[in-house]
Amino acid sequence: MFALYLRDVRLALRSGSGTANALAFFLLLVLLVSLGVGPGREGLAAVAPGMIWVGTLLSCLFSLDRMFVPDHDDGVLEVLVTGPAPVEGIAAAKALAHWTTIGLPLTAASPFFAYLFSLPAGAYPWLVLSIAMGTPALSFIGMFSAALTFPLRRGSLLLSLLVLPMYLPTLILGVQTVKLAAVGASMLPVLLFLGGVTLIAVAATPFAAAFALRANLG
Amino acid sequence: MNLGHGSGAGAASRSTIWDYANPARFMSATGRILPAASATAGGTLAVGVFWSFFLTPDDYQHGATVKIMFLHVPAALMAINGWLMMLAASLVWLVRRHHVSALAAKAAAPVGLTMTLIALATGAIWGKPAWGAYWVWDPRLTSFLVLLTFYIAYVALWEAIDNPDLAADLTSILCIVGSVFALLSRYAVLFWSQGLHQGASLSLDRESHIDNAYYVPLLVCIAGFVMSFLVLVLLRTRNEIRLRQLAVRTARRDLA
Amino acid sequence: MRARMLVGAYERPKMHIGQRLGLHRLQKGLGVNIEVVNLACRRGRRIVFSGLNFRVRENQCLVIIGDNGTGKSTLLHCLAGLLRPAAGAVAADIDEMVLLGHRDAVTARMSTSEHLRFWADFYGTDAGGAIKKASDALGLAPLLDRAAYELSAGQRRRLGLARIIVSGRRNWLLDEPTTALDVPSQARFMEFLTMHLEDGGRAVVTGHSSGGMDEFPSVDLTAHGQSAPQGTPAAVDDFTPEEI
Q1: How far apart are CA B256 and CA B248, in angstroms?
Q2: Core-most of B136, B154, B251, C6, by most CB within 10 Å?
Q3: pTM strictly above 0.80
Q4: Are C105 and A76 inside 8 Å of each other by CB?
């Protein structure tokens, strides 16, 4: 399982389809939003929490359809599933590798993007914390949805359709944490709820995804 | 009704709910009750709508628009209950592998989706005179929009997979996991709209706020919607079973 | 020794809930031979073969032959535990099965040595020894630093076969293993297959005919197809004629 995690992390860092693309996409999004909203610092600051979270969400989403599809095409997935590791562990390793190569870099880069959006200074720690706490949920929910759709020929549009409704709690709570922090209000209950959603996702989705993987490969 | 294991050889006379998991038993039983059930559902709905539209007084505050409630509240109720029915049917499919259960879940989805659409549309029509806009990002309305996306995702997954048993497996697990996140977003939305919009004005559906002149016809409407939902789901389930039987027969003929 | 029993549609009422959910229940004491009893398998909605019986003991290799579409790959998937039987049962040791499908399980952007090291870690076999043994058996030493996308089809097949050795498992399920292999590689393959069998291993190998492996017993799946008189299982669906 750990071997699989290391392999997936290495492959994501090596190729253009992983970390670098997600960060480049995010930078482009910042550029697009700034051009769309206008250069005024107040206008940008008003949309900053929402835009940073939507950007994180989309960066995660676009990297999901590569989670199982290449391994399935190469025949690696059926070997992994028949190996000594439990299928739930394989699913969790895939999601963890996705978080390490997408969620973690996005968390690290978020203060930089927040600065471009003129986010109020007091909100920075809470932004980083909320993204660090929310992105594992995005990876695990995304992994589950990818496990449902990987054998389908035109699975990536369907994947977005399945993933986005399940991303909503994380998005709402993440944005709300940052918004409340930006005006200096207490955001602790929201942040804890966000952590709870992540814990539920991390605890439940590997089992559901393992079921989906077995069904899809059978 | 016995929820135990299916009737064994010795207990053939004792009928259990699981007997209807057999497609043939299901077809004959539902075929017998369907005409009466359809008539009752249609009659109740007609009486309820006529009563609520023409025999109730206008509200002192909202005027005639209050009558939208008689469609809105039952539709919203069935939108949620439709999803719950799919959840139960999905669990039965996963645990006991009864095809009728999976097909019932499949059949309920478009009906529930339509109920959600009715609830959203009537809500919008109500919103214009009451709140001055067709759409406001009220927590309840938003929750229904979220529910609509879950319905769409569920139907889309059914449509995307050719193998019916695999589709039943995957949609069932999606329904279960989706229910968890639908519930979470229901409560997350409450945080989100804090400070944006005061408490929902839709409290009309609470008993304490409603006069008997509205309450009784509302109950009749709800009964009509519940029965119509059940009849539609039964009809669609029967259609799905017929389609499966057709597929099996076609496959047999091709082999022969 | 862990062993697994896969139970098909005929035994449906006795199935454990976990099996219905795809979590195959592990049972002990079923022996370590690969044993197939009255097996039928389904691909999509179609029963591809039925009424299949065989047992593969230590030191034995069984060759599965049959025309295209008679379910050779499906059988291997079923033996590997990927596919639930439509009827009948498979008894085998779950920790000893290793599958080489018609795809090689080779990742284009990883080098040959990375592949071998990853699989050794994944299967928890002694990294140094197993890798050396596999690369020697298949002549991979000159290719170790090459990325997989630079390999030819035959070289990729050899890398796929190397995984079977690296896995350290005893029951090999090989789907047309000699596809794309040149003559010296085929000879090398026969050599290490024979060695594996002498070491107490078992193998189930598919091929279009038993060409090249005439010495092993074979089963012809064509005889177990839908048209065969011994196998028309009733459980095509829940929607059988009696129920319609």
Answers
A1: 12
A2: B154
A3: yes
A4: yes
